[in-house]
C-alpha cells in the first residue's frame, strides 16, 4: 500500500512540473535577486562549499541562484528530486559542478 502512494505522488509531481505553474522558474517572483537576498543569501555564501538541495522541483531556486551569480565559486551542488522535474533541471543546466540524484524522500 505504501508503495502505491509513493508511485502516485511521483506521477503527480512528474506531471505537475511538465506544466508551467506558480513554481516554474519563468513565472515566479521568487526568482528575483531581491527575493534571494531577502532570504539572507550573499554572493559568497556558497563559495567553496558543497550544497545539497532536497526537493528541487523544477529548479526554481537552483536556476535563480545560477542566474544571479550565487554559484560561481561553488565546490559542488547536488540537486535531489524524486519527480521528472529533475530531468528538466538536468536538461537545462549549463553550470559545472552540479550533480543530480533522483531520490524518493
Report on the structure:
This protein is α/β, with parallel strands linked by helices and about 100 residues long. The chain has four helices and three strands. It has a three-stranded parallel β-sheet with strand order 1-2-3, with no helix packed on it. The two termini are about 15 Å apart.
Work out the strand percent: 5-15%
Radius of gyration: 14 Å
Cα(first) to Cα(last) distance is 16 Å
Q: Largest sheet, described in full?
A: 3 strands, parallel
Order of helices and strands: HHEHEHE
- Looking at the structure, what is the overall shape? globular
Strand arrangement within the widest β-sheet reads: 1-2-3
Average pLDDT: 81
Give the number of DSSP strands: 3
> Percent range for helical residues?
25-40%
Low-pLDDT segments, ≥5 res: none
Helix/strand-derived class?
alpha/beta
- Count every helix, treating DSSP H or I runs of 4 or more residues as helices: 4
Structure, briefly:
The radius of gyration is 14 Å and the shape is globular. It has 105 residues and is an alpha/beta fold. Strands 1-2-3 form a 3-stranded parallel sheet, with no helix packed on it.
Task: Explain the layout of strands and helices.
Blueprint: H1 2-16, H2 33-38, E1 50-54, H3 60-67, E2 76-80, H4 85-92, E3 98-101
Parallel strand pairs: 1-2, 2-3
Q: Features of this protein?
A:
13% strand, 105 residues, alpha/beta, 4 helices, 35% helix, 3 strands, three-stranded parallel β-sheet, single chain
